[in-house]
Amino acid sequence: MDKDIQREIRKIIDRIEKKSADGDYIYRGEPETHEGSPYYGKVSSSLWREYGIEIRGFDIEIVQEEMLSQAKKHTGHPQHDLVADFANMFPRYGSETADFELLAEIQHYGGKTNLIDFTTDYLIALFFACDGHHDKPGRVILQKIEDINDMIMQPRNPRHRIIAQKSIFVHPPKGFMEPHEDDVVTILPNLKQPLLEHLRKYHAVFAETIYNDIYGFIRTQNIHRSAYTEFYIGFNHQDKGRKATDPEEKQKEYQESIEHYDKAIELNAEFKQAYCNRGEALLHLRKWEKAEADLITAKEMGLDIIASFRNDYTDVEEFKNINGFELPEDIAEMLTPKQS
What we know:
By secondary structure, the chain is mainly alpha-helical. The chain contains 16 helices and 8 strands.
């Protein structure tokens, strides 16, 4: 990773840690800042963003109450009613807490509520700030707990993903909060991908640990679908490059494949095969340093890069014979099985 990028990452982390040192904070990461929209500057619930255009006298809580009333009709047979069961189990908490448990359940499955997800771990907030919209700035919001203590709610029966994300919910009466600019850390687009790599490598924070259930996969599937499309197009160009006999055409196809792999990785930073394929395409353009970095990344993510390389070449000697040049010694060693 470029040293200037590493310094910028360190500045972001240092700023969050320094700010957090003066009290207890919770954090929220947003991959898109909505600049120019009516939501810009606000930290808002998904329900408010859907219906909460600021009209005098409009109360977003009325919408949530009606939504909650309808949701209760879908919680199964009356004797298995989620809200009733919780109220019976914990009578001292009353119906308000039982309603919150149902809201947390709706939020878990991607439904719209007047809750706002925060986390107690700023590294997880950084992940959310970088996971998506790689052409736009993201942000991390720092919120001092003592300033909103009466809005904070925690589920008493959390799902696996809520535990993994160290989630805590804020229930703002108006549907939004307006943080001070000193409490917002902006993540520039060019830092998102490197930050995701940093979080994976040094803190074990990545998609599989954050979205650690099948519903998490479903929720992110649409986001990553475009990445799969770009990967397919890149693979198609790479295949044309392998088959091309004209050197100029070969170079052009490999360059095209790299551009589409770039887009696939921007859309899905955990796409290990895209890193590997991009690395292999870069080998053909003799961009050794970038190729090696991609192959190392794919290997660190758990991909068998030797098996991938062998889909096209028996060994590095065949690569040399077909393409007319040798691989650097360190890369050749990476792509050669260890002798037992």
